[in-house]
Request: fold
Amino acid sequence: MSDVLNQNEIDSLLSAISSGSIDVEEAKEQSDEKQVKEYDFKRPDKLSKEQIRTLEMIHDNLSRIFTTTLSTKLRSMVNFEVVSIEQLAYSEFINSLPEPTILGINKLEPLSGQFIFEINPEIGFGIIDRLFGGFGNPITDVRSFTDIEKVVLKRVMNWLLTDFREAWSNIEDLEPKLLELESNPHFIQVVPDSDMTIIITLAAKIGSTEGLINICLPYIVLEPIVKNLNAQYWFSSTREKQTPEHIAKLKKRLNEARVEVDAVLGSTELTVEDFLYLHPGDVIRLDKKVEANAELKIGNHHKYEAVVGTKNRHKAIQIVGVAENLFEESEVND
Reply:
């Protein structure tokens, strides 16, 4: 019920006092009584509402990064979103997990302690199926993971931990590292059963497969940086990072990005009829002479001239010049 009365409630209250229906002295005594608020000592809330909202911002960003990373790696439609953020005792979280499941036990340097990254089997098998060339379809019978599947899952877990680091970078420079992979939740004890943890649950959809991903962060691990979990610190950190050092880091990461390079010997056009009657040994005439340079394309842009050859028994190209239309393309793109 709201503490602020609207005009109708005020009028009703005044008329009740005037008619004697309400005893003013009795109402005053009731208001002086202490209000009791229930408190569960088994589940004490460690974080304020503002800190929970900041965690939502962090993991909303994390969901977007996960979506981009796995869409690229799996070449499939992927979507992540935050479902809930709860404060639970560690035993409650462990007892809620299926068996078997995918549990990554990780350390979070420079903080002390460990945290858990859990991927539901439905999502785990969907990712494995997609990486092995399948369609990422959901499984009907959950089973234990093979040794080969565990190796693949460790690689996937490292992808996600790299994204986790990026999402938290506005709060603290953290270095999550995978220690081991486990399938039985009851074999893991990162904190005592009664210790409070923050559970971030993400809904994941990969192709036609849906499932959950849970991140279990013990409060004792986050305690040194809890004071930074506020919107003001988040936005101020974002502004502070637009420095020459930050720009240099971005340039370094950009320089390490992989790009697709194609050497095009030539091209031509065929009719459908010509295409249908092609046979082994047929010669297709291209639009370039034999002595002409190949076009070296980065993305869809012709950037360099190159000569095709071999090196150490591998096909290779040697750049011999810059494409004549390089600067024209740059001007158009700008």
In short: Residues 327-334 have pLDDT under 50 and may be disordered. Residues 261-333 form a domain with the Surface presentation of antigens (SPOA) fold (CATH 2.30.330.10). Strands lie at 78-89, 102-109, 114-119, 175-182, 196-206, 209-218, 261-264, 294-298, 301-311, 314-322.
